[in-house]
Amino acid sequence: MVDGHSGLTTCSHGSQTTVVHVTAPSFASLTTLRVGGTPAAAYECTSAEQLADTVARLDRAGTPLLVVGGGSNLLVADGELDLAAVLVRNEGITLDDDLRLRIQAGTEWDAVVAYAVEHGLGGIEALSGIPGSAGATPVQNVGAYGSEIADVLTRVRLWNRETGVDEWVPAESLDLAYRYSNLKFTRRAVVLEIELQLQDTDLSIPLRHLGGERVPLAKARESVLETRRAKGMVLDAADYDTWSAGSFFTNPVVPSAVADEIEAEVGEERMPRFPAGDGQEKLSAAWLIERAGCHRGFPGEDAPARLSTKHTLALTNRGQARAADIADLARRVQDQVRGAFGVELHPEPVWVGL
Ligand SMILES: Cc1cc2nc3c(=O)[nH]c(=O)nc-3n(C[C@H](O)[C@H](O)[C@H](O)COP(=O)(O)OP(=O)(O)OC[C@H]3O[C@@H](n4cnc5c(N)ncnc54)[C@H](O)[C@@H]3O)c2cc1C
């Protein structure tokens, strides 16, 4: 069977479906930035076992591979790439009597949030509208509006690529931190399934964008989606401001003395700065980018890659950009912030081949 969307051919062996690639889809069609070249091969995995088997087989053969969920946190180089794309497409949600959700890695994350809200289960409503797959949520400990997956994640089923073991591991073993886990930027394991502990509740968690207010779950979800849409943070094919990887840089953590210097230099009251422990503070990357002279839409109308017109933290493809254009813009923004404040901005998405 040829899947017209992905360009993959699948053939069935009994109950298992094995994937054979014909023409590998380009990363421009696999990522939300809509840039990037073509992998040497692509494998669509529709069960956890198939995902583990495919990765094990490629690893045994010494074939470089990239695990791809929704492609919403990936910047992949242009041209022909010497790697196989392993597409995580195993889907399904199960709920047990103790309100634990078990979710196959390829399930669309926002469908999980919608499911939870519909079933009166609280804990993830503030994570509404984040694109991508459930399996990728622990990879960078996704978060928004004062909530993160670490708050509800209990266990993760991993295919451990180093030991060749299929194992459930506790969330604590992933070193989850701000936009980080020990799975990010490594090849050590593939997430096959995740497990979340949710709560039977009518009210949401306190929502940061509503001043800490708790509201009914469905209202919370709608309010988060509305706020995200206004910032171009909900995917919309018709809106170039959403042809992005979301926030492109993490918020930098600097010594308090550096934060003091920047605040004095800019001369504005109420610079966003938050305690980060050990005499360190977290600054707002978006605020620094704007104060360094990179406005919305930067660098200007003719550029194929620009900052979003709704949010300076999103680098966007205006329809014709290549991966190199996005990478150039990222370096330009980094240079400008470094030049203005001596602060290094670190990209949040995973760069491949650049
Ligand atoms: C418009 C927009 C808004 C966004 N808003 C937010 C936000 O509010 N908060 C936030 O935290 N992020 C946000 N993001 C970033 C992104 O959506 C998340 O990081 C998301 O979890 C990525 O999921 P994905 O399936 O698309 O991962 P991909 O982009 O496919 O992969 C990202 C990385 O994870 C790895 N990976 C993917 N699946 C697996 C797996 N099963 N096992 C092991 N490794 C895997 C990949 O190899 C790659 O290294 C946003 C992105 C966009 C485009």
UniProtKB/TrEMBL annotation:
The catalytic activity, as recorded, is: UDP-N-acetyl-alpha-D-muramate + NADP(+) = UDP-N-acetyl-3-O-(1-carboxyvinyl)-alpha-D-glucosamine + NADPH + H(+)
Q: Which Pfam families does the entry mention?
A: FAD_binding_4, MurB_C
Where is the catalytic site? Answer: R179, S247 (proton donor), E348
User: Under which pathway is this protein filed?
Assistant: Cell wall biogenesis; peptidoglycan biosynthesis
Record GO cellular component, one term: cytosol
NCBIfam families found in the cross-reference section:
murB, PRK13903.1
> Which protein family is named in the record?
Belongs to the MurB family.
What is the recorded name of this protein?
UDP-N-acetylenolpyruvoylglucosamine reductase
**What species does this protein belong to?**
Corynebacterium wankanglinii
